[in-house]
């Protein structure tokens, strides 16, 4: 009996309290403001497509920042948002790299090669037909979007898979994005116009247009063409600035100091790391020279050549130019990024568009920030924002960037798109063994 | 070479104490009066409220009571459209008192066992602030033997020694992911102890208006060798070694109260208490792990609490010989400054409302019941340390009951 009374007492309290929940009002209510999100399209490159860990695969596609944004836009009049997802059977898409071991801080990266969406021996990817609104294509550049020869539409497998056989080699990206009856757009493009050059150690391969550096004036005029067609029907939209390419782990993980320490551990007499610069000069490397991430797994460093001179530790066997973004090249790359960004910002302003300043944001990430109790920084693997390729974003990084876009849209158009809860999205997956 | 050292993966877990953890539930009669009553020799709960008044109690007595407490907190991230609530969990603040002294003598002995600080919040394992905290269960149980002496017929002093037994269990998610995408988890669990004192002065003037001055000292509670368990992917176990322990310190603040009791009639009395809670001792919170790694370093987090205060007004009306009715209102100022609000204690200034009744069926027995309600103001905050950004709103409900035997 006593127990019964006690239990009903407790039950009564719980019922009472459930009915007396605290309420938190949102003063602004729920509105699209001056924008219309009923048909949103996302124009861009790998970042827009959800490319991560060196590949395009279903999990990354689903966590792409436009997809996260579109889900939130739904509460303020946004419609469906379609993406060229790989099928569940082929969910690993192009394949990607995963972290399979981490011993004393040394990562082992292993390609994922099952459940691929590869349709033929020539490694063409599974075709996707049907309407899409996430128009991000890995590798897309502002200059190549206007490719007059149309060869890029056949050469880029991510673009090729979205085209009908009749379109392959007959269209370019600028044409591809048009005629989609959108009411709102995002445009985050231009990274590869400088990144392609930087990722190749600032070496332009004449036969490979993806390693070229797009001329500043050309960039500005082509970018204006994009904005003209995207706003042709008076549509509102948002553009993203280009992150400083030197803010990504790809260029900040294998540091000159780390290499020198490793060399000294073996030979205390090691005095300097030698590099060959873009101008052909051979000199000791400094902290201002950036080494590309893949160098660490190449097994070159310290390896003696036929004359017995260790690689990278002697003027007669320096680290080759293609592995290094030397000090002067860094300055050049930064200059191009700044120029592109000032074009992007002034063109967007003249069109009355919102600007997501990802350049500024990524520089904050580089220093390290705490968002909703999650520490995020630009460290490789542990930083949380960058995936295992050291360039593209994790789902967590995408969620953070989605909020940068959402905040800029809301500020510009008076809308109240809810922000994304970044704590629901993962960083790098660590092996459980 | 080729070694990529793990940078600091997390700042180590931490907790804070706020007004939210000061539990103002130490005697059913006083609770019914919003916590006022230090200047009234109401009952054996004076052992807590004012040891100086204990000697003025007419009878010897023992009593025990409980106040099942529901801490209903809600959070909405800035910019989000989702409101998240804590789970319904009932914390059990309790009190036990005994007072004894030879009749018509100038002194009395007292013992109090009560829970002046505590917290029970469970936000669930997957809420948007999970990397700051998922749950906290904190209990501080004070044991207080007391001596109270009449200096004159109208002035009493009393003092007690305080021993605190503290229990803490804190859990939070760690932003490292398993292959299936779920997050890591940290659980800190420890017990500790601390010492302090509680002393009071009680003065009954010729007009029968009474005054109280009470000081409860700070109690620095040391937690030594608490267990620090980390559930992380296997490849990170060297960064979060198994069997780790931690030391920490919980500074529970001193409180100085000034009380006034004003008899309005033979059957009605008004009580007013003003309290100054000296939270300034809580400047930072440090965690010292037995085993450190580059990912798990000792932490020292700024808290920068200022002093808090509260003002409480209560009324006690003896409706008949057997029935007493009580009510109270109060207001408390939070010690937590902007930028330091956390989900452990989503603190803000608060309103207090209370009601109570007492029933005395026989000369020896007494039953008292109370209902205590706090409305903690909505507070929009971005935490300086963690970046947790959103609005907290809290309501507290605590019904209570106690039984007393007097002789």
Molecular structure report:
- The complex is a heterodimer of chains A (433) and B (407).
- Chain A is an alpha/beta fold and 433 residues long.
- Chain A folds into two domains: 310 residues, 3-Layer(aba) Sandwich (Rossmann fold); 70 residues, no CATH class.
- Helix content of chain A is 32%, strand content 11%.
- Chain A is globular.
- By secondary structure, chain B is an all-beta fold.
- Chain B has one domain: Porin (Beta Barrel), CATH 2.40.160.
- In chain B, a hairpin with a 6-residue loop joins strand 5 and strand 6.
- Chain B is elongated and about 75 Å long.
- The N terminus of chain B is likely disordered.
- Chains A and B meet through helix 1, strand 2, helix 11, strand 11 and helix 14 of A and strand 2, strand 8 and strand 21 of B.
Describe the secondary-structure layout.
The complex is a heterodimer of chains A (433) and B (407).
Chain A: H1 2-19, E1 40-44, H2 46-49, H3 58-62, H4 65-73, E2 96-103, E3 106-112, H5 152-155, H6 157-160, H7 173-176, E4 184-188, H8 191-199, H9 216-230, E5 236-240, H10 249-252, H11 256-266, E6 274-276, E7 282-284, E8 290-291, E9 324-325, H12 327-350, E10 354-356, H13 358-367, E11 369-371, E12 374-376, H14 395-413
Chain B: H1 28-32, H2 46-49, E1 61-66, E2 69-77, E3 83-85, E4 90-91, E5 94-100, E6 107-122, E7 135-150, E8 155-177, E9 183-204, E10 210-216, E11 219-231, E12 244-252, E13 254-263, E14 268-278, E15 284-289, E16 299-302, E17 308-318, E18 323-333, E19 350-359, E20 365-382, E21 389-406
Antiparallel strand pairs in B: 1-5, 1-21, 2-3, 2-4, 2-21, 5-6, 6-7, 7-8, 8-9, 9-10, 9-11, 10-13, 11-12, 12-15, 13-14, 14-17, 15-16, 17-18, 18-19, 19-20, 20-21
Unreliable residue stretches of chain B? 1-19
Indicate the CATH architecture of chain B.
Beta Barrel
Q: What structural class do helix, strand and pairing data of chain B support?
A: mainly beta
Overall structural domain count of chain B: 1
What's the main sheet of chain A like?
4 strands, parallel
How many helices of chain B in DSSP terms? 2
Protein name (chain A): G-D-S-L family lipolytic protein
Organism (chain A): Pedobacter psychrodurus
GO molecular function (chain A): hydrolase activity, acting on ester bonds
Keywords (chain A): Signal
């Amino acid at each position: 009996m006593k127990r019964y009374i006690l239990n009903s007492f407790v039950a009564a309290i719980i019922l009472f309290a459930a009915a007396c929940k605290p309420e938190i009002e949102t003063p602004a209510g729920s509105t699209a403001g001056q924008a219309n999100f009923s048909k949103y399209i996302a124009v861009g490159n790998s970042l827009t497509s959800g490319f991560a860990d060196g590949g395009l695969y279903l999990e990354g596609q689903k966590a792409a920042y436009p997809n996260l944004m579109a889900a939130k836009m739904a509460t303020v009049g946004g419609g469906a948002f379609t993406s060229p997802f790989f099928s569940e059977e082929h969910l690993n898409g192009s394949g990607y790299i995963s972290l399979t071991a981490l011993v004393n801080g040394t990562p082992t990266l292993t390609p994922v090669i099952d459940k691929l969406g590869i349709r033929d021996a020539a490694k063409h990817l599974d075709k996707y037909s049907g309407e899409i609104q996430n128009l991000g294509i890995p590798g897309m550049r502002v200059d190549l979007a206007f490719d007059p020869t149309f060869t890029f539409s056949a050469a880029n497998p991510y673009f090729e898979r979205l085209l009908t056989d009749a379109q392959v080699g007959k269209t370019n990206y600028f044409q591809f994005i048009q005629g989609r009856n959108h009411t709102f757009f995002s445009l985050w493009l231009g990274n590869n116009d400088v990144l392609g050059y930087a990722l190749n150690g600032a070496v332009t391969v004449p036969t490979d247009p993806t390693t070229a550096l797009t001329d500043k004036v050309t960039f500005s005029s082509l970018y204006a063409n994009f904005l003209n067609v995207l706003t042709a029907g008076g549509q509102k939209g948002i553009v993203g600035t280009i992150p400083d390419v030197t803010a990504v782990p790809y260029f900040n993980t294998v540091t000159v100091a780390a290499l020198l320490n490793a060399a000294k551990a073996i030979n205390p007499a090691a005095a300097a790391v030698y590099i060959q610069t873009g101008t052909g000069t051979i000199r000791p490397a400094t902290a201002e020279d950036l080494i590309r991430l893949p160098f660490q797994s190449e097994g070159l460093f310290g390896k003696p050549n036929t004359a017995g001179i260790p690689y990278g530790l002697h003027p007669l066997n320096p680290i080759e130019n293609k592995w290094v973004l030397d000090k002067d090249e860094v300055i050049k790359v930064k200059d191009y990024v700044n120029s592109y960004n000032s074009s992007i910002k002034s063109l967007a302003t003249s069109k009355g568009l919102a600007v997501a300043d990802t350049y500024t944001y990524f520089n904050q990430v580089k220093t390290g920030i705490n968002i909703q109790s999650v520490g995020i920084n630009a460290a490789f693997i542990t930083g949380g924002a960058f995936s295992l390729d050291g360039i593209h974003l994790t789902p967590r990084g995408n969620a953070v960037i989605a909020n940068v876009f959402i905040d800029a849209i809301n500020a510009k158009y008076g809308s109240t798109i809810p922000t994304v809860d970044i704590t629901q999205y993962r960083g790098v997956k660590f092996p459980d063994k | 070479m080729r070694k990529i050292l793990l940078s600091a993966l997390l700042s180590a877990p931490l907790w804070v104490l706020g007004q939210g953890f000061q539990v103002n539930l130490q005697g059913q009669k006083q609770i019914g009066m919003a916590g006022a009553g230090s200047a009234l020799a109401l009952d054996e709960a004076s052992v807590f409220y004012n040891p100086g008044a204990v000697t003025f109690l007419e009878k010897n007595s023992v009593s025990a009571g409980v106040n099942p407490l529901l801490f209903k907190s809600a959070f909405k991230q800035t910019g989000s459209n989702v409101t998240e609530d804590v789970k319904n969990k009932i914390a059990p603040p309790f009190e036990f008192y005994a007072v004894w002294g030879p009749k018509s003598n100038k002194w009395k002995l007292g013992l109090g066992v009560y829970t002046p600080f505590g917290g029970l919040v469970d936000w669930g394992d997957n809420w948007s602030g999970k990397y700051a905290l998922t749950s906290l269960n904190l209990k501080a149980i004070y044991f207080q033997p007391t001596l109270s002496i009449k200096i004159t017929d109208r002035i009493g002093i009393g003092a007690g020694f305080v021993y605190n037994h503290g229990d803490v269990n804190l859990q939070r998610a760690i932003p490292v992911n398993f292959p299936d995408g779920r997050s890591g988890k940290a659980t800190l669990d420890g017990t500790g102890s601390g010492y302090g004192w509680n002393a009071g002065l009680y003065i009954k003037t010729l007009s029968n208006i009474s005054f109280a001055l009470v000081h409860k000292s700070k109690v620095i509670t040391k937690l030594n060798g608490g267990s620090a368990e980390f559930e992380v992917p296997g490849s990170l176990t060297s960064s979060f070694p198994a069997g780790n322990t931690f030391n920490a310190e919980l500074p529970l603040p001193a409180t100085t109260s000034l009380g006034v009791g004003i008899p309005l009639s033979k059957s009605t009395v008004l009580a007013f208490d003003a309290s100054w809670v000296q939270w300034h001792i809580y400047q930072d919170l440090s965690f010292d792990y037995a085993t450190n790694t580059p990912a798990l370093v000792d932490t020292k987090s700024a808290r920068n609490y200022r002093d808090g205060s509260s003002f409480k007004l209560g009324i006690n009306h003896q409706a008949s010989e057997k029935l007493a009715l009580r009510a109270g209102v109060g207001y408390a100022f939070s010690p937590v400054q902007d930028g330091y609000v956390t989900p452990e204690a989503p603190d803000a200034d608060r309103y207090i409302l209370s009601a109570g009744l007492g029933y005395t069926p026989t000369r020896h027995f007494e039953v008292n019941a109370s209902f205590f309600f706090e409305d903690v103001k909505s507070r929009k905050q971005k935490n300086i340390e963690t970046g947790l950004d959103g609005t907290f709103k809290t309501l507290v409900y605590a019904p209570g009951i106690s039984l007393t035997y007097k002789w």
